[in-house]
Design a protein that fits this description.
Elements (H helix, E strand, L loop, with lengths): L5 E7 L2 E7 L22 E8 L2 E7 L9 E6 L7 E8 L4 E7 L2
Antiparallel strand pairs: 1-2, 2-5, 3-4, 3-6, 6-7
């Protein structure tokens, strides 16, 4: 299983700012290993962020996203002490879910 995501959610006057650093190799399927063989594609395909049971962000990604992707966004309606859930699913069906409290 992948390493935990690093999530920071901060309440601000104009909404909640969320920053997420994900640990994932994000292989495109186009790189070759030392023997000249193609490294199979393995990348995050979907990212979902929920707050109070509602989706505040949903993203579909492809192989062009960099290794250990970083994502930042804002949303309205959150407050200090609320919980956020971030989930990703990759091209091999592996998934990772982590939670953070809004500061």
């Amino acid at each position: 299983m992948a390493d935990p995501m690093r999530i920071r959610a901060t309440a601000q006057p104009d909404g909640v700012e969320v920053r997420v650093l994900m640990s994932h190799e994000m292989e495109t399927g186009q790189r070759r290993d030392g023997s000249g063989n193609l490294v199979p594609a393995h990348f995050i395909q979907t990212v979902t962020v929920t707050h109070s049971g509602k989706t505040v962000l949903s993203a579909d990604w492809g192989p062009a996203v960099a290794k250990n992707p970083y994502m930042q966004f804002k949303f309205q309606g959150g407050k200090k002490g609320d919980e956020l859930t971030v989930t990703w699913v990759d091209s091999k069906g592996e998934t990772r879910t982590d939670k953070a409290i809004i500061n």
